[in-house]
């Protein structure tokens, strides 16, 4: 782990038990995923619904327990920490949830939402608590501060509520934020403002982000690197501009073809809309049922994630 690397995930597996006609089995929505995130870097995690993106984010926060692999943040192995060690860890790592309507308590004022983490984690009281709350609200653009303090969540717009969620995450002075589709439930007209705010926080506070999204346009704007996920497997990873300029994996090309604003108009290059097989012990490439390049090799042998160019890695037997 280099000095610049803040988050180092190696071969992470998350599995859940299910009941089948033959008894108990397991699904693996995250299957041996590895990645790093440097200090002050944004890794955009892209994929369609059900690809395992949110599960990875929750595992990093230790909301979900990894079944295998390791998670190292800074100089700490946090894969299985518990108790007070987990409480201290969450001073460094926070999550911005997708739904700004559901992530705030409707019976508490905006001020009260920020008081709790500032008291619990920073030990602030009295004037210090009041002043720090005002600084956070101003930092995320919720002005005039005196009026915003005493409002309840239902009195704010969706974009304002998401800014409150960001301010609450910042209250513990984190080094790393998991942003789980933070703009997907907002009006199109205010998405750019929230992305701009997160970009400013990254720059001014040297924050690192795992930015979870299905939107390649916002991934390119905010992400330094993009990692494409499908069925719990990493399909492709590269610098953002490089990946969108010359995608190599058939699934990445499919995502680009389905992206609004894509200048290339053609039928989507897939053979099926079948969901990926997440059962433990599955064979072959998880994308084989939808891939236009599929062969028997794909159905029987899982392609390794390998570097085909500097900083550009692809998991495909026939990447072009």
In a few lines, what is going on in this structure?
With 320 residues, the protein is α/β, with parallel strands linked by helices.
Features:
320 residues; alpha/beta; Rossmann fold; eight-stranded mixed sheet; 11 helices; 12 strands; 33% helix; 25% strand
Q: Which superfamily, in CATH terms, is the homologous superfamily of the largest domain?
A: P-loop containing nucleotide triphosphate hydrolases
CATH-assigned fold name of the largest domain:
Rossmann fold
Number of strands: 12
CATH architecture of the largest domain: 3-Layer(aba) Sandwich
* Major sheet details: 8 strands, mixed
N-to-C CA distance: 31 Å
Any idea what the radius of gyration is? Answer: 21 Å
Q: What sequence of helices (H) and strands (E) makes up the elements?
A: EEEHEEHEHHHHEHEHEEHHHEE
Structural class: alpha/beta
Low-confidence stretches: none
- Give the averaged pLDDT, no decimals: 90
Task: Explain how this protein is built.
- Helix 3 (110-122) packs across helix 4.
- An eight-stranded mixed beta sheet has the order 6-7-8-3-9-10-12-11, sandwiched between helices. The chain has a four-stranded antiparallel beta sheet with strand order 2-1-4-5.
- It has eleven helices and twelve strands.
- It folds into two domains: 5-92 and 174-265, Rossmann fold; 108-172.
- The protein is globular, with a radius of gyration of 21 Å.
- By secondary structure, it is α/β, with parallel strands linked by helices.
